[in-house]
Amino acid sequence: MSRLPPLRQTRLPLRWAAWFVAGCLLSVGQATVVLGKPSFSVKAPSSWVKVNTADLNRKNETGKHAASATGSSSILLDDYQIRVSDKGTERYYHYAQKIETTAGLNDLSQLKFYFEPSYQQLTIRSIRVYRGQSTIDALKPSEIKTIQKEDELDQQLYNGTLAALVFMNDLRVGDVVDYAYTVSGDNPVLGGRFADRIYLANSQATQKLIVRIVCPTHRALELKKHNTTLEPVAQTSGEETEYLWDRLDAPAVESEDSTPGWVERYPSVDLTEFKTWEDVAKWALPLFKVLGANPPQLEAKIEAWKSQWQTPEQRLIAALRFVQDEVRYLGIELGRYSHQPSQPSSVFSRRFGDCKDKSFLLSTILNSLGIDAAPALVNAKIGKSLDDWQPSPFAFNHVIVQVRLGGRIYWLDPTISSQRGGLGSYYDPPYARALAVREGTTALEKIPKPSSSSGSTTVQEFYKLTYGGPVTYSVTTSYSGADADEIRVRLAGESLEELGKTALNYYAGEMQSIRAEGLPEVHDDEAANTIAISERYVIDNFWKDEGHWFTADRIYSELGKPGISRRSLPLAVAYPLTIHQTTEIELPAAERVPLNSGSISDSALHFVYDQTRNGNRVKLEYSLKALDDHVPVEQLARHMEALEQMRNAAAFQLPGRVGSGRRPSAGSGALIGLLTVLGLLALAVVFLLRRMRRTPDAGARRMPPASPGSTPDTAINVKTAEEILSFLAGFKCRCGKLPYQADAPPARERFTYDERRLTGVRMKCPNCGQSVDLYFSPLQEAIVS
Q1: One-character DSSP codes across 141-174
Q2: Are 693 and 509 spatial neighbours (Cβ–Cβ below 8 Å)?
Q3: What is the rounded CA–CA span in Å between residue 148 and residue 265?
Q4: 419, 544, 570, 627: which sits with the fewest CB atoms below 10 Å from its CB?
């Protein structure tokens, strides 16, 4: 797996944990896994290590340490050394960080060294604190606790990882915490081969950054650079070759929110003994080899499908739904089973497995049905950027199934539950590239880009207005294709009562007097793969002094602007995305209201709006379609302008005088029209800003996407804990204040959600008292998913 910039609190020596499919490619099977001794040793560095030291006195022109001191701590030394040998691999880590603020005290108050005891050994080399001219030995082996790091059991993940936990005593601002350790051992599933990705910069400036690789000369490594022109100093001594990158004052890599996952920001180098994708496919083939015959129960089910369904397409759908819906997700990461799937017979019998288990089971069933199928390795995050990787098993984090049927290729994901519709309506997943685990595979294959119409959401609203009395409101939200599959999963875990309560609270954010008339009604047409949710409400106090705003809120929620607008990186766009929203308003009488129509487009989005009136009915029609999954840097200015235009066009104001019962005179029509336009412009800004601050509840009504970081599904990609700190420090509460307090930083909790390892942070605003939860996806752990 790849080596990434260091975290301040959580050091991740388990570079293997980010391999291939560690959150997704894990399970025990029927094998017996023998755990290693759950302990650690304390020794001086091995003779092959070149010990480096941090320069504690080096200053820059400002009189501060040359490393960036803008955060809670600064990195003085980031030293990573690897020795590859025929006996195994050793990874040596050495860090030195200076505590710059009181927040840094919390950052470095605990040191954690992770290892997987079934094949790894942890050796702590040193822990020191430099204070002025004094050196404090902080390594006290008797006080180090070894704990079972199983904080993911409620997410159906178990990996057997242990952590040596060190509590740092008596730290002070200005101290330099210096520590080193080694993790030795290779996951046996790799068969002795080596691969890694090294990073040559952090998210904050680093005074001295060193990467050193030592390997036998006869084991030639393939090197491939990304975002860097830096070349290693290579030299051969005896039977070993050394590659050395030594950087002084390595600048920080700036982060930008809403960046596509396939964008490479950090300077990095791939190092691997795998020369081609064919090598990787040949490595994976034995892992997915069926051993023995199918159990009688599975054979009986296969024969039942053959009898019940006449066509291969029908049989494929039956098998897919069985694996998707009746084999639950559960993964256990122990040793070689971080990569190797369980046998299909075991997965079928116990009815649980992870993505590699379920894909292996499904492909085995389909082949027994006479359908050509094979597991396929993909990366759900970086997609098409796999083209730039040096071939490696670590390039993948998910497994799906490739099916060849009727002259077509289908890419099926057995981890998606509640997927419905016929085979002809199945949509390609957005993984872009795949490596089929088949005999003869020599290269990555392209997965077609999902059709922009693979899923859609349609909202139909109707308001019946009265003068002074209650207003009735009804809404039906229809989902099709991928959107229906997504909402179906959410509805499966929510009762109608809960659905109705969530929806009512959503509306009450703008209309406090709203009340529901009965529970929502849900109609699911599985054959057509459509779901419709209907709701009915009464609003007692509808009118406000300035009138009432009608906003295409489902569309508006997709038009948020990124936190960083002046960008050097592309901007990610939700794709595929198709939304239609229509609002019909029945007025008490025919009234003249300002109406507009038009369309707004750029390279990523196409928006159409049409506001019409027929007698006493006003009809507001809106449509938004994503054309691409990102906006190139050179087109960002136009995109920002288009977003602003779309946001303005997605709101319509019905002036308060329409509901007052007082009809305007003909002589005042022109003045009223002018005032209406001016009022519309002023109130649009106020209302839309207020709408921006309110994040719609995604649970019931129409699943409006949340803002970046506000839910686990929209977790923000980060490389290090420093990036998390930077985001928290600049985050604004809904009241407009900054809730982050450097003197009392919030705790961070690591957990797994939907096969992704995330970091959650809860802050309470001292100004308004509101609590906010934010979620982050560390990339060195995102690969684990």
Answers
A1: GGGPEEEE----GGGTEE---EEEEEEPPS--TT
A2: no
A3: 34
A4: 544
